[in-house]
Specification:
This protein is mostly helical. Helices cover 55% and strands 2% of the residues. The chain contains twelve helices and two strands, in the order αββααααααααααα. Strands 1-2 form a two-stranded antiparallel sheet. Helix 4 runs antiparallel to helix 5, helix 4 packs parallel to helix 7 and helix 5 runs parallel beside helix 9. The protein is elongated, with a radius of gyration of 27 Å.
Length: 306
């Protein structure tokens, strides 16, 4: 192959991808925008929303645009699902709420995976792409901001759920069998919140890989990147994380077994201070009672949503 052939095959492939493709099964050209699938999904319009290949500042600019445009679409879906979720919780529809929370969890988890694709973009290339963004940042994302509005509404709906049942959040965890439905709902919310925080942390690592994290490094919106760490670990549903702190603060070492102690058979030793521990809990199991020293998560004045 002569040096004159360098790039010829790649250029031929690009030309083929830019045009319609004949599908031998359908015996039709696909990509002209006339088929029902293309019309319904508006693929012609959708695939024209990115910068033309001949005008890209760097090849990876297309990747940057597609990832962020896709994330906006998924966040639109998350907002729609949040409305369905709030309605299900207010109607007491546990199964409907859990189904929607699972879908939202899977969706948010996929957002983190999409951001990881951007980690394949070297920092020197991003420095080129970054020049096209003006002062743009993730804080300007419509989907990101609307998702936080949705999260506030979900939080308020869960607090209303607890209020209708006259249940304190700490009791939901200390008496999980008695409050099985609410406990399951709370843990599904934790799953969603954790997935959201993982998404934010992955984004933080992307920032670290591309422009660095330091007081001297500012994002395009003017904020030092060092501030991102606290922002990206802020939970959506703080009560569900606070209750774990409250339980641990009230935890007592008494009631367990001495390390290495025999637990079964004739020589088995009783748990350390078992009687005192059971009395403190008001039940036989470690989650059978309630600690009066724990603050209720459903606090006065916090039941109103946006």
């Amino acid at each position: 192959m002569s040096t004159n052939d360098n790039g010829r095959f790649a250029e031929a492939l690009q030309t083929a991808l830019d045009g319609a493709v004949f599908n031998s099964t359908l015996r039709k050209n696909v990509g002209e925008g006339a088929l029902d699938y293309e019309v319904y999904l508006k693929t012609g319009e959708l695939l024209s929303l990115q910068t033309k290949l001949t005008a890209l500042s760097a090849p990876d600019e297309l990747l940057f645009q597609i990832v962020h445009q896709t994330q906006e679409l998924w966040m639109k879906q998350l907002g729609f699902d949040a409305v369905v979720l709030v309605r299900a919780m207010d109607e007491g529809n546990l199964m409907g709420a859990l189904a929607m929370l699972h879908r939202m969890f899977v969706t948010v988890r996929s957002l983190a995976d999409q951001v990881r694709i951007l980690q394949t973009m070297p920092p020197d290339v991003f420095q080129v792409v970054r020049r096209q963004l003006g002062n743009g940042s993730g804080l300007e994302s419509p989907g990101y901001n609307r998702f936080h509005v949705a999260a506030d509404a979900i939080r308020a709906a869960f607090l209303r759920w607890c209020e209708r049942r006259s249940t304190k959040l700490v009791d939901i965890y200390l008496e999980s069998e008695k409050n099985a439905e609410t406990h399951r709902l709370a843990e599904a919310l934790v799953d969603l919140d954790e997935a959201f925080q993982v998404w934010m942390v992955v984004h933080y690592m992307l920032v670290r890989r591309t422009i660095g994290v330091a007081k001297s490094v500012k994002a395009l919106d003017g904020f030092p990147t060092v501030l991102l760490a606290s922002r990206m670990t802020r939970p959506l549903f703080p009560e569900l994380w606070d209750v774990r702190v409250e339980m641990t603060e009230a935890w007592k070492r008494e009631g367990g077994y001495s390390p290495g102690a025999e637990r079964e058979g004739e020589g088995a030793a009783p748990p350390l201070h078992a009687c005192a521990h059971a009395a403190a809990l008001g039940s036989q199991g470690p989650y059978g009672g309630s600690h009066s020293g724990l603050r209720p998560a459903v606090r006065e004045g916090e039941g109103e949503g946006p």
